[in-house]
Batch of 4 targets.
Target 1
Amino acid sequence: MEKVTAPVITGKKGKEKISMLTAYDFVTAGIVDDAAVDIALVGDSLGQIILGYSTTVPVTIEEMIHHAKAVVRAAKHALVVVDMPFLSYQVSVEEAKRNAGRMVKESGAEAVKLEGGVRMKKTIKAIVDMDVPVMGHIGLTPQSVYRMGGYKVQGKGPEARKLIEDAKAVEEAGAFSVVLECVPRQLAKEITELLSIPTIGIGAGPDCDGQVLVFHDVMGLSGSFRPKFVKASADLRKSMTDAIKTYIDEVKEGVFPDDEHSFH
Ligand code: KIV
């Protein structure tokens, strides 16, 4: 199977839907890659999913690089995109360039993703000019959770115009694709038709050029809270809990280890 690149992703627009899933470690990245997903995203959602923070805000560059390295080692086919965490690109364009460079150089990921539209236009352009492919991310941008006052659908009513401007800015800055998170379905359709780069939706309806979800949500590993836009394809939390209970019972009852699993 051929390695997916950023230009390959851009070229899929209008031809083939793009699949993207998060991956944070070697095992899950290997599973995602074997299944031939187009993009493995080392999302800063790892702050919540893997590290147990309540938001993505505390995630550091070092944590992102650490996890991205493991994903890169497993990804033979998928394009690996790594999220730039909060404070790694907001302070100045110079800092953003250095940190984006560090993230691809030290982790081996092939592109970065960062949040923001019009206000990030210069930053995206500067990183793209360094030959680092950038994926944009607009709509609900989780690093702005405190300003937004929670995780809410963005671009409703008069806000729609602003989101369209954000989408155009990301494209004009040279991004190879853009994530639309928690955006009304009709607005996501309009933006998708307007842009020449692919849109990748999460909570943005069926008319985007691609779809992204968090691996643990799709696998039913995330616990009881499930956002409206998540469709779990498995119930691994239950399967894993059952398997662990079986193991505990067998150990307690002296059924395992047995002769078959012993050395002679
Ligand atoms: O961090 C993340 O997982 C993301 C996706 C959900 C788009 O940014």
Target 2
Amino acid sequence: MGNTPDSPYYADVSPGRGTLPPRAWYARSDARRLILDGSWHFRLSPTAEAHDASFAGDGFDPGTDPGWHTVTVPGHWVLQGHGAPAYTNTRYPFPVDPPHVPDENPTGDHRRVFDLPADWPGGGGCVLRFDGVESCARVWLNGQELGDFQGSRLPHEFEVGRLLRPRGNVLAVRVHQWSAGSYLEDQDMWWLPGIFRTVALLHRPQGSVADFTVHSAYDHRDGHGVLRVLSEPGGRVSVPGLGLELETGATARVPVEPWTAETPRLYDATLTTGGESVPFRIGFRTVAVEDGVLRANGRRLLFRGVNRHEFHPETGRTLDEETMRRDVVLMKQHNINAVRTSHCPPHPAFLDLCDELGLWVIDECDLETHGFTHVDWRGNPVDDERWTPALLDRARRMVERDKNHPSVVIWSLGNECGSGSGLTAMARWIRSRDPSRPIHYENDYAYPDSDLHSRMYASHAEVEEIGRREGPAKPFILCEYAHAMGNGPGGLSEYQRLFEAYERCQGGFVWEWNDHGLLRHTEEGQPYFAYGGDFGEEVHDGNFVCDGLVFPDRTPSPGLVEYKKVIEPVRLTGDGAAGTVRVANLHDFADLTHLSLEWSYEVDGEAVGAGTLPLPAVPAGGSAELALPAPPSTDRHGEAMWTLRAVLAGDTSWAPGGHLVAWAQLPAPAPARGRDETGRGVAPHRDGQRLTLGPAVFDAATGALTRLGAVPVRGLRLDVWRAPTDNDEGAPWVPGSGPGAAWRELGLHRMRHRVDAVETDGEALAVHSRIAPAASDLALRTVYRWSWAGGERDPLRLIVTVEPEGEWDCPLPRLGVRLELPAAYDQVRWFGGGPGEAYPDTRAASVVGRWASGVDAMQTPYVRPQENGARADVRWTELHDGTGAGLRVDAGEDHFWLTARRWTDEALDAATHTPDLVPGDTVHVHLDHAQHGIGSASCGPGVLPQHRLAAGPARFSFTLSALDTAGDGEAVIRP
Ligand code: GAL
């Protein structure tokens, strides 16, 4: 490898030419600025050298050239009708031959003519700033070349004062999709070239701030903040909220309220130099690793984190401030307290929001070379000194830009680059420039360039082993865990218990925040989200780009709702029978004065009393025991339960008062209501081709239920198949990581049902069946036993017994019955877990109550369709047509899992995008005795043993009745 003497600048390992040294980024100042965003002229060329630089000069007129169009800056040209986006996870979409790039190097020439405002000040200088350009840019102003740069998600500035004229300035930017820098930017996301962040012209008056650094530590032993602001040139700092006026370079020590993610106290300040006045905000906090534990302001931190890539389904990595704020607000509302900016520095305005609303940030450098894993890491830039200047440039640009954010508590060198001297050089430089923050890099615990021991996707067992290990150690975090691809992730609760049990296990960051599906429309205009392979890429990684806790449009997924519950900062436990509740404050800093505790007392899911309990100011880490009120008197009988909800006592900057933070349900003793059957059992009656049993009609030859009262029923039979989730399918590079392949191999999606006998006896109809796939001698011997007690209001009872034959060594996807109802029965009420979906290892957020929904709204629209929508712990359900007519199912011995949809599991399995799912004339209902867990095997550990559904002898039962009037009471919908 290496540069040949005539290597073009875009294939040069050096970071570029002509830019100014990096410095702190700030959005506000009294110096003038001109934002150059908007419509720019644009020409796309298939190669880097297709055109000379004449477009940069005054004489060029793109308006008359048919090769020129317009694009919006900031933006990616591939999302504006020019070329196409491409997705790969680790593979470079070009031959690996660093630092060379392919001849096919889409190149976008951008041109914009601008005037200076009439009152633009004279004197001083002017800086042209690019906040983000992917992946390499060469820049001209008024025909003069300014230089070129690489480092896509980092700012680059040029001094341009001498070149500006009042009117008709020509700014020309040539952007190459591929450059030497692309080898350093192999993050798992779309390849999206373009000027994707703001371009601005900044006036720099004489004596303006070249750069400034805010040191604002907090001494938790005496509650003092220690402030020192350095500036070039020097000036004065005022902090009115602290009554402070001081020279830059001087140190002030004053009592302050500290900044934490839970209590993000900021003090407004102003830096004034001879030429500029810059407002900024100070947060006092100190982070340190002490005795192997990461602490902020003296207290152990527990990260309840997410990895966040910048993404918008229409604009890619161009994010408006509203979207950034929405991310932070959604995170706060879901109890998330930390973000890793995977795997590059975000738009700096995002960090302002983290300061303001309170999130701990691991700020990660724009660096990943994962694709070298496919060539045994030969030529890895982080282990080749020729690249070290580029790596140091990236480290500097991140640290200098973001150094004044209190939310940034850890610098991360990058992601998945293996190891090498370049990383060591970066760590050494960062340590010397900013000793106040620890450094992160994911690797083994002895890795010298990281102050943390960080791993990704470690299993629960490995985390436990790390937690138990004796002797000196670094703080341990999971910088990535719980792969949120499709349905899942499972196993979050079990991780959280480990983080709480072991001091050195300081939490983790779920992979990842956002599905990166791109909004597209079918020919009929139906919207859907596209993923890898949808744009004709020759190598791609499919829907692996859709692995977030929020859907592409930022609708929270069930995974986010689950995560919120698992990481709730208050744990409510207790004994509903004894009337006590224990409130454990799991915050790291805050007491509980910002919350109030609401209770309700429910019988069979209906509230019969509600109120508020006074919540003592339990300090962080403490707990208190409270007495519940006496249960409200009621003449209702049934299952009684306390529901406790810790809610915000007042409005905050991220949620209104009343917002739910934590909750629990405690069973309470109450007289149970028996659904006594009145009759004594009657025999089935044969009538030609039909068998009748009370209200039920069966096919005499097959034993199939065909009608219950007025309700036609079809296809009721045992079912073990589910459309495999991404986590069932597992990771393509880890053979055997999910059971999906084994399920298909075995043929669980094509089971054959043979009826061996339809027997009637004095009390029941017994249908004996053998269910098995072709080419196998494994089978499930199944008996459906139908009975009816004979009373007019008695339901039809079904007992299913299952006996496996042969050696089943893979788990079953599910075990239950499915049945078909007419499409009109598309309204569902149920008493059980809700409102959203749940599976055995994703059920923490399932609230027992009475719920109502249309079938359509019970679907979770995963970007790649897959099993979804099960409701847990269902006691009864009614599927009705809106007038009250329909089918009611009551649980027998055990609660059941309820799923209803307008297509079969086979159709769900075959679908690749949401428009493939077309409603038919049937509602397909699953009543499951058991479900296999979800796990996280799409990029991590599979289902824990306790959530595995092994094939074994089973017995389960339901009762069924036809409804011809409104059922058992009005359903209640709660948030
Ligand atoms: C990690 C990687 C992430 C992402 C994730 C899987 O190995 O750091 O960028 O690829 O796996 O989605």
Target 3
Amino acid sequence: MDKLIIEGGHALDGEVYIGGAKNSAVAILPASILAGSTCTIKNLPNIKDVYNIRNILVQLGAEVKEDGDRLLINSSKVDTYRVDFELSKKLRASYYFIGALLGRFRKAEVPFPGGCDIGVRPIDQHIKGFEALGAKITIEHGIIRAEADELRGSSIFLDVVSVGATINIMLAACMAKGTTVIENAAKEPYIVDTANFLNALGANIKGAGTDEIKIKGVDFLGGCEHCIIPDQMEAGTYMIAAAASKGDVLVKNIIPTHLDSISAKMKEMGIKVVENGDSLRVIANGRPKAVNIKTMPYPGFPTDLQQPMSVLMSIAEGTAIVTESIYDGRFKHVDELKRMGAKINVEGRIAVIEGIKKLSGAPVCATDLRAGAAMVIAGLIAEGETVISDLKHIDRGYEDLEEKLLGLGAKMKRIP
Ligand code: EPU
């Protein structure tokens, strides 16, 4: 398995171009199952999760072809509602095929999804939504089966704010009879992006981006051309890497408001963040000030950047309290950071990080996607050499990570 060797101590400097949002792409590609004709998708990130979703579309019978930087998907010939077991377990977002296939065929069989091991990740709210629309759900032998004679609009109040459940219910409800209302809906930019895509196909969705989404069922969805929004987590990762390395980086092709919670925290830490149109410049000189962080659903501080941010805290001046309120297992990077000298104590969902002057390079593991990003940032700022193993997690969600960092002056190489 590949390893990444990083020589630490080089400040990042220059410009980095952000790709399309992973969590939009992995929802919009399955959503194309609902379309009656060709969907043209632009700005798809070049990552393994997208590759795996494409494979599922092909397995289901969709025609998928590349045309320059666009992906053309025609799902009109899809004739099965069964997703392959091996393909499904490769990523979390395979659960979106339940909503999409149920919406299209009134039937879906999707093996339990895979994805990062970051704690308990139930899908009870997805199921609650499908059942409210009239579907019968059974789970046997690791396969989720959904079936309905007819899907009828309904009112669904989510017990927890869930990105996946909000999108999945939108997918199933688009062509249901009558109106569906999702209350306590997630507000992440991916929800808005997916709703915009579905509306471009002919759906009638209002309120995406607020906590109440109304979906009036329509009889038919056509095709469309859609450009995926920029990846706020990729952008946030480079912002944090720039700050941690005491660098000066222009993060380009972003929607700065999607990053407000990160920019605000950075400013609180004494890091300069300058917004200019669709880019943000991050300039850092000395050690940042330690600040407290609590992860929250959007627009709060995202759980997906908690791990990279912990690296910044590990070299900050003072002590930071990091509270992870979304996942109960998202501190796996802490043991790895401790190998590099970080002073962190974890008690349940709280990590107390006592900033030190410097991390020291060590062999570490990318235990999940964002832990991997955290380890890369740690390697960039550590004294000496860091060797990161288990890169498959990073490859699932970061487009051309090494090329982009090398372009900013980092020193690293991947070895088989
Ligand atoms: N939850 C439930 N029941 C459900 C669904 C969720 O209790 O039916 C709980 C979860 O256990 C968690 C919270 O609700 O505590 C939020 O989970 P959510 O459903 O929002 O997460 P998700 O849809 O499975 C997406 C992203 C994650 C990101 C979270 C939170 C995708 C494919 N994944 O996951 O992305 O952390 O939202 O923003 O969109 C990542 O990119 O590294 C990543 C893990």
Target 4
Amino acid sequence: MKNIVKKIRFVVILLAVALMSVGKIYSQTGSGTIPKIIEKNGRHAFLVDGQPFIMLGGQAHNSSGWPGMLPQVWFAVKTMNANTLEVPIYWEQIEAQTGKFDFSLVDTLVKQGREHNVHLVLLWFATWKNGSNHYMPEWMKREAGKYPNITGRNGQPVDSPSPHTQAAMEADAKAFAAVMGYLKKSDPQHTVIMVQVENEPGSWGSVRDYSAEAQKLFEGQVPAELLKPEVLKALNRPVVSKGTWIEVFGDNADEYFHAWSVAHYIGYIGAAGKAVYPLPLYVNAALRDPIKNPPANTYESGGATDNVLLIWKVAAPAIDILAPDIYMSGSEQALKVIELYDRPDNTLFVPETGSSQEYARYMYEVFARGGIGFSPFGIDDNGQGASEADITARLAPIAQEYEMFSPMMRELAKWGFEGKIKAVVEREDHAAQTIDLGKWQATVTFSPGGGRSSQPNTKPIGKAMVVQLGENEFVLIGSLCHFTFHPVGVNAGKAWQYLKVEEGKYENGTFKLLRIRNGDETDWGGPRFGALPAVLHTTLITR
Ligand code: DGJ
């Protein structure tokens, strides 16, 4: 009898140890609920394991999703402290033979993601990759008649697939649905949290398809979905109940027709995947100048540029997010892009950007607006033979921000969703900026030591964020800047001081104190932030 009890005890202990280790390995996925986007009062949250989540991401180079390339990708992920890797999967590899699917690369990525305790966003490189069809399987490339490219205005060939080809759309949808079905089966713990459908779709070199078939469609009627009064009004067009593309959209007809066609095709693919496994889906966009309203032949026409976001929303409801790839480092343009893609009907997410300090500052603006992710492109060495020290140095501007944000990622996501964060980023003129906080106004100046030096930063790379926790209680985050406060409104004219400025970091939902900043560290107006970002829990008081 004693022996049986001993044996049972032993088995129970073994089971408990096994369960604990499973919990550890899969700690990235506690609740098992499927990731999803929620919206409240025009703000969004990305729920992973049922809680708001921010992707502190990095994207691998285009040809780095192969097993032999992954060690350097994981090195980059680790050295930059990312919690999410965006990595391509390739239609040409997955369906190298018609109808035969090989998911070995997906398996490898998912397995290694789990081993590194990092989430994945898979990028479905398929009909479109930067406007071309270069990731279509060989068997499709060899049949140009069945899977044609578009034709330019003067009949010239254009290196961009036609969005009017049913056969290509069905083939892509079938393959994408197979990928999603495989993920559903093989990834119950949701290592993969989101999927990008295609990559920067649209066309370079022609505003639309001018082939005979496309021309016929273009001369036909605008689809009823686009003729809804609210849609036409938002597009600044007269409300009509029917008309051809030219009649309804005038000078914008060519681009809108192409945007509709590309979006409709991709929406079909997204819907096919979602029907199998409803992970959040997004489409990334090569941008146009967001301020100058340039002609469509100067950028990638048909993609989800800021002027056609609504057309994409209407044409592709299965796509949750239209996401800007930000490669314009100037603050006026970059901030405008962020503003334009942050809409009640669109969750803000920057899936590609640069990794230098000039780009790193925009992370603050994105998170302040409740954006759900930020991800510099090309994090790995791409087979160039750089030393690990070089890669670490290249990624340092992002790494230091992610290191600070990682332990407070859940708080940050919740604060962003609740609208509690405000941010400023240093502009090219290095001018001071103010942040209104009810009874207080913060003034942020930018300089290397964060303050007393009269010299501005050599480049516009400073940034600051304020989380308002209460009337007088704030979390200040930033680098290369200096904060001071002024009592305003009902506080105007009152004497004031810092009640307490606590430096530390959030861990498992609680703030852990490193030190109280006082004396030189808060005098001359307020706290300074040097090159390394810091988190200051700050309380003010009037006297
Ligand atoms: C944007 C694309 O989406 C990426 O795949 C890559 O081609 C980069 N451009 C290169 O800068």
